[in-house]
Design brief:
Blueprint lengths: L2 H6 L20 H7 L4 H6 L1 H15 L4 E2 L15 E3 L3 E3 L6 H6 L10 H13 L4 E6 L1 H10 L7 H9 L1 H25 L3 E6 L7 H21 L4 E5 L6 H4 L6 E4 L5 H7 L4 E6 L8 H14 L5 E5 L9 H13 L13
Parallel strand pairs: 1-4, 4-5, 5-6, 6-7, 7-8, 8-9
Antiparallel strand pairs: 2-3
Helix pairs in contact: 4-6, 6-9, 7-8, 7-9, 9-10, 13-14
The protein binds coproporphyrinogen III (CP3).
The site of coproporphyrinogen III has 21 residues, from loops.
């Protein structure tokens, strides 16, 4: 029995489960120790190393779930796209026209980043808690493919969406097909929940998101849920999109720190909520951090809640502060909402 999976299935339990986006990463000395001797791609592509890093935060912090150590870029090389990290993703050649989209491979499932499934298998066999698989959402991956690298506003990508809608659709469809195959391979290997990362969706207006984002997301969510595994959808700066996000079919929605959980609860009826501590609060003095985390726990009541950050952990975060937050969450007695029909 897992408090994380129970909560994702809609149980409003006595305590919130806790894990952190980017919990497997540079803020951990044990991660940096391995990283000194291996490039990021080497770590990602070596199942033994990826599984080890996946489990590091479980051993140190006692979190309730382990997120697979990979990157949203992991499947791109199997599509024929060369990516380097410096430290963010940089593509050898951006994908900006119909010919480049036509050249993208949609490989058979077993050829989509097979090292990721191998890492899930090793991690799941050794993990005391569920392993979360993940993939980048089509819009967010397309943003990197078109732009060629990270960007504050992804203006080239947004102009591309507006000027070449059929080419954009072909690209997004291929990315969704690959995401479905990739996630299925992780589930077959032992991932017991899945998260979709849509980091840049918030840059779009609601109509563009409804047109280019939501349909592909619905297809991915339906395919994964068919495998019997709960799905969490995460987008950043997407408060204006929550009306659409409510219709994607996901079990849970990860909310960033800008949108209060109580407001998200109203806009996302029936959804499990994940979040939403400001990752910057992790850089504040301990008393400030714990007060903020306590506020998130209080706000998260009134329905199932998975405690997490509103976005990924900053590299400068003190692991001891993170451990203190885990203790706080585990000791916080929630007031669960009684199931419909139950009497007090
Ligand atoms: O959450 C975890 O601990 C699991 C592993 C994970 C990584 N990337 C490892 C990583 C996950 C879930 C991701 C997702 C990811 N990657 C996203 C979506 C989530 C988000 O934060 O919005 C995005 C947009 C990327 C792309 C990416 N990869 C960037 C922008 C960077 C560099 C800057 C940064 O934020 O770290 C990476 C590199 C990367 N991915 C590192 C790690 C641990 C750092 C690599 C190093 O050691 O140098």
């Amino acid at each position: 029995m897992s408090v994380y999976l129970d909560t994702l299935r809609g149980r409003d339990g006595e305590r919130a489960p806790v894990w952190f986006m980017r919990q497997a990463g540079r803020y951990l000395p044990e991660y940096r120790h391995i990283r000194e001797r291996h490039s990021f791609w080497e770590m990602v592509r070596t199942p033994e190393l990826a599984a080890e890093v996946t489990l590091q935060p479980v051993a140190r912090l006692g979190v309730d779930a382990a997120i697979l150590f990979q990157d949203i870029m992991s499947p791109l090389p199997s599509m024929g796209v060369e990516v380097e990290f410096a430290p963010g993703p940089v593509l050898a050649e951006p994908v900006r026209d119909a010919a480049a989209v036509a050249r993208l491979r949609v490989p058979p499932a077993e050829e989509v980043a097979p090292f990721a499934a191998a890492a899930v298998r090793l991690a799941a066999a050794a993990s005391p808690v569920p392993v979360i698989g993940f993939a980048g959402a089509p819009l967010t991956l397309a943003a990197y493919l078109v732009e060629g690298k990270g960007s504050k506003d992804f203006a080239t990508f947004r102009a591309f969406l507006r000027s070449e809608p059929p080419v954009a659709e072909a690209l997004l469809t291929k990315l969704a097909d690959v995401a479905i195959a990739y996630l299925a391979s992780q589930v077959a290997a032992g991932a017991s929940a899945v998260q979709l990362f849509d980091s840049w969706a918030g840059l779009l207006d609601r109509e563009s998101y409804a047109r280019h984002g939501a349909p592909h997301l619905r297809r991915i969510v339906a395919a994964v849920r068919e495998l019997g595994v709960p799905v969490t959808y995460m987008a950043i700066g997407a408060g204006h999109l929550l009306g659409e996000v409510a219709t994607l079919g996901s079990d849970a929605v990860s909310v960033d720190w800008r949108t209060p959980l109580r407001q998200a609860r109203r806009l996302l009826p029936g959804k499990v909520l994940q979040g939403n501590l400001d990752p910057a609060a992790m850089l504040a003095p301990r008393d400030v951090l714990l007060a903020e985390a306590g506020r998130v726990l209080t706000d998260g009541q009134g329905g199932p809640h998975v405690f997490n950050l509103g976005h990924g952990m900053f590299p400068g975060t003190d692991p001891d502060g993170v451990a203190a937050v885990v203790d706080l969450v585990k000791g916080f007695a929630r007031r669960p909402v009684a199931p419909a029909g139950a009497t007090a």
